Every structure is written in structure tokens, then in C-alpha cells.
Amino acid sequence: MRSPFTQLVCLATVAIGTLSSFKALNFFGSDPRADEDHSQMIAEELPHARPPRGVPLTITEGTWLRAPGEEWIIQQNELARKQGLEPRFTEDPSAADGEGAWIDSTGFIQKRYDEEEDFWAYWQWVGPAQLTRGRRDFVQFCSSCHGLDGDGYGRSGQWLRPSPRDFRQTNFKFTKVLANLPTDDALKRLIKRGLDGTPMLPWDLSDEQITDIVQYIKSLSPEGMGWRDPFTGIGSIVEAGENPWAGRENFAIKHGEKVYHGVAQCMLCHPGYVNPRDLPGLLDQPEDTVYRENLYLPVLKDSEYEVLGEKVKILPPDFTFHTIRSGQTPQDLYETIASGIKGTAMPAWKGSLSEEDLWALAYYVQDLVEEYKDKPAERRGLMERLREGL
Amino acid sequence: MSGQHIHAEPTNFFRKHVFSVDHKVIAKQFLWFGLIWLGIGGVMAMMIRWQLANPGEPVPVIGSMLFPRTNGVLDPATYNTLFTMHGTIMIFLGLTPLMIGAIGNWSIPLMIGARDMIFPLLNCLSFWAMFLGGAVGFISLFVPLGATEAGWTGYPTLSTTINGVGSGETLWAIAVFLIGASSIMGGINYMTTVIRLRAPGMTWQRLPLTVWGIFLTSVLNVLFVPVIGSAMLLLIMDRVFGTTFFIPASIMQGAGGGDPILYQHLFWIFGHPEVYILILPAWGIIGDLLSFFSRKPAFGYRAQVGAMVAVTLLSAVVYGHHMFTTGLSAMLGESFMLLTMIISVPAEILFFNWLHTLWKGNLRLTTPMLFSMGVIFVFGLGGLTGIYLATIGTDIFLHDTYFVVGHFHLTMAASALFATFAGIYFWFPKMFAREMNEFLGKTHFWFTVIPLVTVFCLMFVMGYAGMPRRYYDHTSAEYLRSLQHLNKYATHAAFLLGAAQLVFVYNFIRSRWWGKPASQNPWEVGTLDWTMETPVPHYNFKEIPEVFTGPHEFSNPDIPDGKDWISMTEKLKA
Amino acid sequence: MNRINSLLAGVLSSRWMKALAVVGMAGVAEAQGGNRWAPFPPASDFGHRFSELFWLITILCSISMVIVVLLLLIPLLRDRARPGHKANYDHGSSLHDKRLTAVISLATFIVLDAWVLAIAMKDLREAYWNMPEVDQAETYPIEVLGQQWAWHFRGPGLDGEFGTPDDILEMNQLTIPKGRPVSFQMTSKDVIHSLFLPEMRTKKDVNPGSINKTWFKPIEAGEFTILCAELCGYAHYQMFGNLTVMEQEDFDEWEESASLLGIAAYDPEDEEAQWAWEWEE
Q1: Strand pairing partners for C177?
Q2: C150 reaches A (C-beta below 8 A)
Q3: CA 20 to 30 Å from B144, out of A35, B113, B267, C2?
Q4: Domain around A222
């Protein structure tokens, strides 16, 4: 005779069996796995990570990475003194090679000699413990987009344009420094702020965690590139200095419009925001000047950044439509325009344009964003004006 | 009955207190284990509430000690871990051991007149499997790359290696698996004990409702915990051995081809009965206690048992209401909506009978009675708000908002917790031969029920206003910033609720060692556990008692000596 | 049956029901920007049905809860133990009691659950399940791709076809026309997300490996919220976006210029960036 228990077990088996067969018969709704068309979504032959197993989490060796030079160290110390703090770096004469070194909380910086190249450069020692911490935080927080090896091809990074950075290419777009590579502080600010309109969020991580992650990211540079290249330049975020237009913002916008379409020729890549018929008047150019076609649209530009071995192209933003990645205050815009965007067609404008022009451009772009972005009726009016007579 | 020998009492410390096979010792082990985990889970809840009210500020007092790397601030990863582990701990390591482990182990043999569980060794194993599960869960908090962060539901693909390659999630799955194994062992043991070891005369219709509740819970445990066990096994295989049960082909570049939705079905086939696993013993306990302290028979005993059985049967076929937004077909959605509505009928029968039990009684408002009446109140609130979530139209908006959080905390957390407290206050004199302080107990009740209802009713408002759950910081999105004030109120109430539990801890510890010695039957009830001497001797009954009356014969005019209660071993006049 | 249906419909669409929903929303309009206790008013046609159903359930539940509390309070005050007071000996096992139990439980079920169920079914069948066919000219289709932690939206652009250069790609921002049904097909790159549009009173999971569908019809223009409602990892709380509902004429211009910008950004060599799938019928 069957006990009630056995009967119940039989009942449950039947119930679960029924449910699974429902599942097999697509009873629970559409299941595109059965659908051939769906497979087109699956880009085949991508070097995509399978479910990771045995991912290395410990780094056993420390490394030397390029650091900014003595000038920067002295500047940092002065900055700290101005704020009434202890100097950030202290000199450490006992360091190896007898060349002296500077120590701060993240490690120490030393001037070292490269015999092959006959070259003196400043290098920073990063220990294995810090790299391991950075590695672990990187895997936990960054790897979904930037990949487990920092190759910029994590699971959530595929199909994403602009693509997440491949740290082995040591090409950083929004560092806001004039030199080739940013200082640690510049990178840390980037991580803390994030990039607007992208999945690179403002990261709520502690200062210590971000420091570790930054050191790890730097250590991903291949031999002879990026932070392992003795000749590379490392710089701080470009300084905005005095705002020459303070209190005269309206004039700045007017002036900025001229600079944008005139001296700086921004409209060669970005859209022009004045109807071509009115441009000669604005810029004091001959009436029959010919401008590029479809001036109201941006032009696709090459970049140095590679995805899967192919150089990708980047569309310069239309400020009335796209989100500006690196901040929308005049200060942010000044920094971006002055320092350029690395690896793209956007050059560093500091030096080529006067401070007044740079600030004017910043105000003009900010005005464009404020006036037209996410304002359908206003933008419609602008677009009608721009296309009039074309 | 067969197999009920009297063994010699062990003298070895380990045999007596650690690896004991005596159900009373195991019940106390479960009790301490559950209370400690309840405390840990409670502290986690306090930290979660702190973060929600004061996003990004260091947790006071314990913060800098627990999170030195962030100077006491909870980072989002830690926050995710906290609510995941809060859920897991409260359900699997707090309420399950307390309600099923402690109260079940204590009351079943004593209430049915048995010398021990039918499988004493399995009973011991059940506790130690759970202990091991708890240990693994605890260790998982400290592994590199962080502990589990996928919510207590652990939905793939978030819980697979696609999100995190650390071992925290794997250890969490192993812990749940072990705890599940413990529950199955306990369930088999309880069911068999109730079926086989009832004292002569203890018919199914004289079984106290507590035992009925735990018996039906055991049935659900044995049927549905294996499902979560298998889901966890598959998850572990996906994580460790590279299978793709839950990882779809599009993520795997064409290889594999599992389905994350499959996990959701597996999880909720278990997950919904789990709600009833926690609530059925609670219903049983309060069904008894309401009768005991109203000095009135349990109104509609058969109807109550029938309703509980109906809930047990229906619990398996309503789980789809957890998945209304996953893309169930219209037909399934409507079916699950209907079935979910139908399960409210037994609940209505229970409510009617409980309230009728109180009607025209002679209410002794002891602490266990207050907590039992508290269950009616909070389960009423929780159960009624279930209607919003059973209805697809409203659930689409309310799903995964704080409305759901408020709902399930009132039903399965607060109701089960109140019944557990009622049970602890009720059986404490028999367990530890000392009485708990009534004044402190009542203080505990009032300072628990008021903030508790405040917290979770505020959550209904938050959810209705559109606040999603599991957000680290509700001030990040413009839409939610205007709701932040509700978070502040809820946190104040939650801290009050947490502080009130200190009264219980103090009362429990003080009464355990320094309380007034308890008499044999302080509550004046007739069930078998109160007929034996205090403290309960090893192997309970020298002679197996014979039962002549039901458990709820209060105020029967046929009781001799003018008492209003009669022991189940006594006969009525006439 | 039809008569009952029409009766229910009559009660639901009656003025007091609507007025109640408005009262429920009161305070919200004033408190915009400040503190609020209720959601912003619904902006989709289904949203209004939600509000009415919500308040119906609230009324029924409040009445039930008041009854339960009264039945707890009366014995609490009246029947407390005192010397000389005896409890009523009643097992509740008589036929009368059994009938009472059955009648009251069934009556509660009918008033509380069956009523709600009937209206819910009506709403679902009349609105929610009626997912618009895509070949209907007025439906605006959107493909959604979720990822950790951003929303990608792909509109078909001027040619109405997906996977062409003029597709409109937006991130964390969705622009749709007012007054037309908007149909979504959604999938995810990595983990499960859930597209939650609180003002549209809609929500649907975005599952990796399968395409989920939903739709709604916005009936008000303006700026609204997009949230993620399913735990998706570290930055779940930052995965939000902005929904813009435009008047049709604004939308036409927007669609054209967005399409042109899409063509400008199109790089035929970068195949990997084109993640559109064929619209499923």
C-alpha cells in the first residue's frame, strides 16, 4: 500500500514534470531561442570571454610606472602648503641608486636612468599588494564593460559605441590634460565624475579604492607604451585661470559664435549653427564664400582607437542633440576645448586660441546646450532656420 | 508505540550538549542559533535603513569597524550584499530554525505524547547541516571580490559568473543548499513523527493546531525544498563547471543556450510555498494560543485545519504571481491571478475563525496572547495588500517597488516573527523552567508592533509613489528625490523597532538564568506538554499518556472541580 | 454576465471613481519638486485604469481592515478576564457555524477578490493584452537593449526599418510621439533588467537571450522617468533615463534630424556597432 507520503511525492513529480514540459513546449511565452532570425543578434566569431573561470586575482610582482617629474612634485607640495596641509611628498635620500626619491601615501617616485636610451625619467614604484587590491576591485566593478583583462571588451561593452577603453592602447579621451597621459589625480577625477550619457557612471567608491584601481589600470600598459614609455609626457588637468568674461557672459556668447564659425573652424566637423547665407555677414567674409555641404550636420571623423583591430570612427557631437560627455559648465567646457580629446580629431586648442576665445567658445557651446537640447519646439525652429534656402 | 525506548541520559558533555540527539536539546540549539542569526540579520537591516535615510554617510558606531576601507561608508556593493544576506539570513537562518527548528522540535513530541522524534540522529544531523550552512554563509561574507550581491532570489544571469567571478555567490548557493538539506531532513522527521508516534487517543482531530501547522509545513518542506536545492546545484554548476543552464546563447556567443527564466520558475515553485512554510506554523501556533488565552475552544477547529490543508495544496499553483512582469503569456498570467485570488478563501476562513474564537471569550492578555493578536493585525494588513499584487493591472506598477517589500515583510516576516515571539514567550517556562518577565514582554510587544506597522505602511506609500526596491541611493534619480523624506521617517521607526528588540534580549537573558522558577502549568492549558513536570525529564514521558479530550476544552461546563480547563489526559464528566 | 459587466463598467467609469483617483493624486501637483506621498499622475491610457483599480482595491481593503480591527478591539475591551466572568463554550462546529463560515468567506471573496478580478480581467483584455500590431501605420516601434548600466533605445528612423543606417540610437533617453501606441521589443546584453516607466504605469523585464514585448500609449507630452526595476548589479540605482513624449509635429522634425544624425554617424565598416534585430511580428 502506498503511504500518503509516497503519494505526495508522486504528485509533486507529476506537477514538476508537467511544468517542465510546458516549458519545453514554449508554453510560457515567446522564446526566440527557437527562432532562427534571432541568431543574427549573436555576432559570431567574436573573441568574447566565456563564463570566466580561474580568473587570476593576485598579482605577485610590483612594477615601475612613469610618473610626473620633479616640477609637479614641488607644485603638489606647494599646493598642500597653501591649503595648510602637510606637504604631500617628502624627500627620501635613503632610496636605492642614491638618486633620491619622493614618498607619498601611494608609494614613492624616483628619477631613474635608462641606459639603452640614455635618458633620465621619473618612475613610480607600485607594490604587488596595491596592484592586487586594484586588480580585485577592477574585476568586481570595471570588468563588466572593460573586460577581465582590461581589453575594453567585457560582456556589457560589446556593441557599445563609443567603445569602453582598452587600457592596453593607453588612449584616454577625456583626461583634460595637455600632456599625452594624465596624472593619477586627473584619472581619479574622471572615475569619480563619470562620463555623462554613457554607462561610465560616477563611481561611489572610496578614495583608496579608486587609487588602487588607477594604479592597476596604469600597470596594464604594454612594454614601451603608456606608463611604461620613458618618453611619455604626464600632465595635470589644464588650468582654467581667470575668466575674462565674468559678468559679460552675453558678449562671450556673441564672440564665441564668431570664433566657432570663424577662427577655430569648429564647423568643419561639428555642425554650423548659422545659416550659410548669414555666415559671410557674421564673419566678414566675401559673399560668395562656399562652406561645406549639409552644414547643419556633423561629419564622421577617424580616431586612433581600435576595436577588434579596426580603427573606429567617431561623430563629433551636435551640441543641440547629443549629450556632452565631460561636463556642461563653462569651466568643464573650457577644460575640454583647451585640452582636446585624445586620439580623436579634436585637437588641444590651448595656445592656438587666446584665453578669451577659449572661454567665449565654452560659453557659446553652453548656450547652445541650454537653449536647444531637449527642447523640441526651440530646436525645431533652429533646424528650420538652418535649412532655410538649402 | 513501537520503537520508543528509554535510553540512559548521556553524561559526556559533547553527547549531552553538542551532538545531542534529544529533541529538547536540539530545540534549544536551534533557538540560540536562530536568535543569534536574527540579531545579525537585524543589524544588517539597521545598516540598510541607515544608508537609505543618509546615503553615503558613514554608519555610526559599527561602521568604521566593519568597513575600514571606506571609513565606515557602505559602498553600493556592500549595500547589495547586505540586503541579499539580510533576506537570506532572516528566512533561512532566522525564522526557519526558530519556528520550525526550535518550536517544532520542542512542541511536536511533547504535544503528541512521544518520547522523542522518530529519527533522533537525523534530527541532530538536521541541526548540524543548518549550522554548516550558516557557517558557509558567514564565510562567504569575507571572500575576495565580495560576497553575494544578487539579491536573496539570486536571479541569473546576475548570480552567474557574468556579473561576478568571486566565490561569494557560489558559497551563498552552497549555504542555501545545505540549509535546504537540513529543512528536508527536519521535514521528513516531523512528518513521520506526527504520523507514527501519536499517543493513544491522540487522533488527527485532537491534534493541537500547532502540530497541524508544523506538520503541513513539513509536507511543503519535503516537496518544495528539493526544487530550490536543484536550482542551487544548477547554479553552482554554471558558476564552477562552466555549464550554461541559466546562461542564454546570446551571451555565450552561440554556445550553450540556457534560459535565466527557467531559474525563476524553479525558484518560485519553491519560493511561494516557502512563504507558507513560514506562515503555516505561525497560523497553527496562534490558532492554539488564541484559544488558550481566550479560555474558549478554538472556533471551527475542523475549518481551520481544512483551511490550512487547502493553503498547503494551493501554495504550489500560485507561484506565477511573482513573475507577472517577466513576460508570462496572457493565459498564464490570468490563470495565476485567478488562483492567487482563490488562495484568499482559506485565509478568510482562518480570519473568521480566529476572530470568532476571541468573541465572548475570557481574554487573558498575556504576552503570548498580545503577540497572537498582533499576528491577526499585521497579517491582515499584509494579506489585504496582497490583492494589489495578485492583480496584474496593479502589480505591473507595484512589482519590485517598496510596496512589495512592505507586503512580504508584514506577511511572512512580521507575522511569522510575532508568532515566533508568541511561541517563545509561551514555551519558555517549560523550556528553561523559569518565567519570563510579563511587564518587559508587554513593553516589547507594544514597542515592536507600533514602529513595525509604521515602517511597513510607509513602505506601501513609497511603493505606491513609485520607489523601486534594492536601490542604494534614492536621491540619485530626480524622480525619487521627492520621496526621500519617507525614507527618513521609515528609518526612524525602524531604529525604534530595532531598539525594542533589546528589551527582548534583556528579558530573555535575564529570565533564562535569573528568572522566577516556573510552575508546572503557568498558563493553565491542557495540552500534553503542560501536563508533565518542569523541567521536562530526559525522555519526556515515563509512561506514554492516554488522551481522552481535545486540546481546546476550555470553559466546558462538564469540567470537574469548577476549573475552566482540563488536561487532555483527563476525562470529562458524563 | 454581460449585465454584470456593464454594471461594473458603469461603476468604474462613474464620476465618483474618477474623482477619487483625482483626490488621490492631489497634493502631488502642488508638491512637485518638494516632498510627495503619491506617484505623479498617469500619462498613459492604461495608467488611468491602474489608478482607478488601485483606489477600488484600497477602498475594499480599508473596509475589510476596519472590520478586522473592530472585531479585535471589541473582545479586547469587552471580554477581558475578570473574576466571575466566563467564556462562552462554543466549538463552532454546529451546522449553523459551518454555514456562517462558508457564507462569510465566500461573501468576502466575492466582494473583495472576485470584483477586483473581474475589473482586472476587463482592463487586461480591453487594454493591456492588446499589443498593437506593428504593421499598423500609427504604431511606433522601439528596440530596447539593456546593459549594465544603461538603456539603449533604437528607433527605426525615417524608413521605418530596423538595422538600416538611419536608425535612431539613443542612450538613457527615449523620445516618442504622443497619442500613438508605442511598441517595445527588448533584450539585454548581460543580466536581467526591467524597464520601468512610472508615469506610464508600466514595467517589463528585459531578459538576456529572449525578446520581451510590451507597449503603452502616452496621452500626455512632457518629460518623464525611466528606471530599472530589477536588481542588475553594482550601479542598479544609477540606471535611469529620461523619457520625452513629444507632440506629433515636434516629433516629426525630431525624427528627421535624429535620422540624419544617425546616417552621419553610420560607419559601414564597423559592423559590430549595429545590434538591431529584425522586428518580430
Answers
A1: C246
A2: yes
A3: B267
A4: 63-235
Spell out which chain A residues touch chain B, with contact meaning CB-CB distance below 8 angstroms: 4-5, 8-9, 12, 15-16, 19, 23, 27-31, 33, 38-39, 41-44, 46, 48, 50-53, 55, 57, 136, 139-141, 143-144, 148, 155, 204-206, 208-209
Report d(CA C269, CA C275) in Å as an integer.
Answer: 14
In a domain, A58, yes or no: no
Give the closest-approach CA distance of A19 to chain B in angstroms: 9
Please state, in angstroms and rounded to a whole number, the distance separating the CA atoms of residues A106 and A92. 14
> In Å, how far is C251's CA from the nearest CA of chain B?
24
Terminal alpha carbon distance of chain B = 29
Mark whether A171 and A266 lie in a shared domain.
Answer: no
Residue A298 gets the label, from left (phi > 0), alpha (psi -120 to 50) or beta, of beta
Which CATH number covers residue C169? 2.60.40.420
Number of neighbouring beta carbons within 10 Å of residue C35: 13
Burial of A32 (C-beta count, 10 Å sphere; 0-12/13-18/19+): buried
Query: What number is the ipTM of this complex?
Result: 0.90
What residues of chain A lie within 8 A of the CB of B245, using their CB? none
Is the same domain home to A231 and A253? no
**C146 with C250, same domain?**
yes
Q: Is the pLDDT of residue B253 over 70?
A: no
Please list the alpha-helical segments (H only) found in chain C: 2-13, 15-25, 28-31, 45-78, 95-108, 115-123, 248-265
Answer whether A46's CB lies under 8 Å from A158's CB.
Answer: yes
- Which residues fall within 8 angstroms of residue A18, CB to CB, at 6 or more apart? none
Same domain, C194 and C111: no
C247: domain range? 140-273
B329 contacts in chain A (CB < 8 Å): 27-29
- Determine the residue among B234, B265, B318 to mutate to test chain A binding: the one whose Cβ has the most chain A Cβ atoms within 10 Å: B265
Domain limit, last residue, from A235, A270, A285: A235
Reported in sequence order, the residue ranges of A297-344 that DSSP labels E, i.e. its strands, are 301-307, 310-314
Residue A363 lies in a domain: yes
User: What is the grid cell recorded at A383?
Assistant: 533646424
Q: At A220, which CATH number? A: 1.10.760.10
Query: Looking up cell 511587564, which residue turns up?
Result: B439
Q: Are residues A147 and A276 in the same domain?
A: no
* C36 lies in some domain: yes
The answer to whether residues C53 and C119 belong to one domain is yes
Number of separate domains in chain A? 2
User: What CA–CA distance (Å, rounded) separates B15 from C130?
Assistant: 67
Q: Which domains does chain B have, with CATH numbers?
A: 15-562 (1.20.210.10)
A226 occurs within a structural domain: yes
User: Secondary structure of B474-499 in the HEC alphabet?
Assistant: CCCCHHHHCCHHHHHHHHHHHHHHHH
Do A280 and A206 share a domain, yes or no? no
C-alpha cell at B135: 557557517
CA dihedral A37, A41, A47, A52 (to 10 degrees): -100
Per-residue pLDDT of chain A (390 residues; tens, 9 = 90+): 455 556 566 566 656 655 554 444 444 443 333 333 333 333 333 334 445 566 788 888 988 888 888 788 888 888 888 888 888 888 776 665 556 677 777 677 888 777 777 778 888 888 899 999 999 899 888 888 898 888 888 888 888 888 899 999 888 888 888 888 898 889 999 999 999 888 898 888 888 889 999 999 999 999 888 888 888 888 888 888 788 888 888 898 989 998 998 888 898 899 989 888 888 888 888 888 888 888 889 999 988 888 888 888 889 999 998 889 988 898 999 999 999 998 888 989 888 888 889 999 999 999 999 999 888 888 888 888 888 876
Is A56 part of a structural domain of the chain?
Answer: no
Please tell me whether residues A297 and A214 are part of one structural domain.
no
Residue C153 shares a structural domain with residue C187: yes
